[in-house]
Automatic annotation (TrEMBL):
InterPro entries with a match to the protein in the record: Methionine_synth_MetW, SAM-dependent_MTases_sf
CDD domains the UniProt entry points to: AdoMet_MTases
Protein name: Methionine biosynthesis protein MetW
Length: 224
């Protein structure tokens, strides 16, 4: 009977893991799902500001990636570890000196770029450690933002829900702003997806989207 109980317990754990995997896939945000689609199977992935490890766990389970994350928040690190995700606890502002040149195939920075103090530095570091970089950020060019400014107020929207005095967002930009910076840094943009309320925007994206997701190739990728 004890053996039967052990088997039942193992089966319960297995089923729980399967249910978690399905729930994780179903709950993946549309922007994260698009990011996952841009990442190759069995590739090496670094997720900067990985949060609770949702994306890396999904990539591990669905694409067999060799993934690692960087996260500073204690609670999020614990959540990621519980999901079986490898995490380095570090402040991204300190750079990525722990990682070698072109150590990864892809590096992800999701909805964090606008909160970085040293924007150029983190983008250069992403290009150094991986062949492909993927970044997402709120689109300041979304038309209601301009309307709010015309009314004399800073915009508050779904992707930018903070008041001016408590926002973590310090470097806001439009799609064209980011593309100009990418060009300056020698980053070749390969893919772009834009979203509004979880739905993809393909027409007048610079005006109608609230969130932009870019994939770029590192200039180091072309070096022998």
């Amino acid at each position: 009977m004890s053996e039967t109980r052990r088997l039942s317990a193992r089966e319960a754990v297995r089923r729980a893991d399967e249910l978690w995997s399905r729930a994780s896939s179903q709950a993946l945000r549309p922007d994260l799902a698009r990011i996952a689609g841009w990442i190759d199977t069995e590739s090496r992935v670094l997720d900067l500001g990985c949060g609770d490890g949702t994306l890396l766990a999904h990539l591990r389970d669905k694409k067999s990636v060799d993934g690692a994350g960087v996260e500073f928040d204690d609670a999020r690190v614990i959540s990621a570890v519980r999901r079986g995700v490898r995490v380095v606890q570090q402040n991204l502002e300190e750079g990525l000196a722990l990682f070698d040149d072109q150590q990864f195939d892809s590096v992800v920075l999701s909805q964090t770029l606008q909160a970085m103090h040293h924007t150029e530095h983190i983008l250069r570091e992403m290009a150094r450690v991986a062949r492909y970089g993927i970044v997402s950020f709120p689109n300041f060019g979304y038309w209601p933002h301009g309307f709010s400014i015309l009314r004399g107020r800073m915009p508050v929207t779904g992707e930018m829900p903070y008041q001016w005095y408590d926002t973590p967002n310090i470097h806001l930009c439009t799609l064209k702003d980011f593309e100009a910076l990418a060009s300056k840094l020698g980053l070749r943009i390969t893919h772009l997806a834009t979203f509004n309320g979880g739905k993809e925007v393909k027409f007048l994206a610079g005006w109608r989207s609230t969130l932009a997701v870019y994939r770029f190739e590192s200039p180091m990728a072309a070096k022998p």
